[in-house]
């Protein structure tokens, strides 16, 4: 299992190109499974269930057809994206369990940062409760599986500009807001989050990543 980190923002089409190529290589047995940690410049992505009425400001940022499941989401600086390319043929060919494990990974990671995050029935993503009783989403996930190899993955809000989410109805849910570690008053850095992503991944997926390697996609 490779563990890659890119420090400079990665254009979305570059990430898609890498994932397409890597998924084919994993399927063919010519490359290892990989987790890739990165940030994107500000953009919106549309999943396969996206409703165009949920794109409130189509001219605000570039909009990309993602090919993953789900609806509209935002990516941008201050948000950690983790793309996971894993061969489910080695892990029971159970997509439902894989999605559950992605959720568990996020929950375990945030728990390590003293943030109580939870699933909610009927609502995509991972949620936190506020003192006033409201609930906000702190993390999103969207997956695609090709010949039992996964791609796309998760995103966790660390210090993004939360006003950028106002150009869409995130994941089609307009009854609740979006938050971040910084918005919750948590001082964890991206590096802190990355450390907990790694240890939590090993706990949840029972897979030991190689040492993290800085990666500059071409």
Mind explaining what this structure looks like?
The protein contains 3 helices and 12 strands. The protein has 218 residues and is an alpha/beta fold. α2 crosses α3 (190-205). The longest helix is centred in the N-terminal third of the chain and has 17 residues, at 12-28. The protein is globular, with a radius of gyration of 16 Å.
N to C succession of SSEs: EHEEEEEHEEEEEHE
Largest sheet descriptor = 9 strands, mixed
Number of strands: 12
Question: Structural class, judged by helices and strands?
Answer: alpha/beta
Mean model confidence by pLDDT: 96
Number of helices: 3
What is the alpha-carbon Rg in Å?
16 Å
Strand content: 25-35%
Unreliable parts:
none
Termini distance? 21 Å
Helix content: 10-25%
| Approximate shape | globular
In short:
The protein has 218 residues and is α/β, with parallel strands linked by helices. It has helices at 12-28, 95-111, 190-205, and strands at 2-5, 34-38, 43-46, 63-65, 72-75, 79-85, 118-120, 123-129, 135-146, 149-157, 177-178, 213-214. It is built from three helices and twelve strands, in the order βαβββββαβββββαβ.
List the helices and strands and how they pair.
Elements: E1 2-5, H1 12-28, E2 34-38, E3 43-46, E4 63-65, E5 72-75, E6 79-85, H2 95-111, E7 118-120, E8 123-129, E9 135-146, E10 149-157, E11 177-178, H3 190-205, E12 213-214
Parallel strand pairs: 1-2, 1-12, 3-4, 9-11
Antiparallel strand pairs: 2-6, 3-5, 6-10, 7-8, 8-9, 9-10
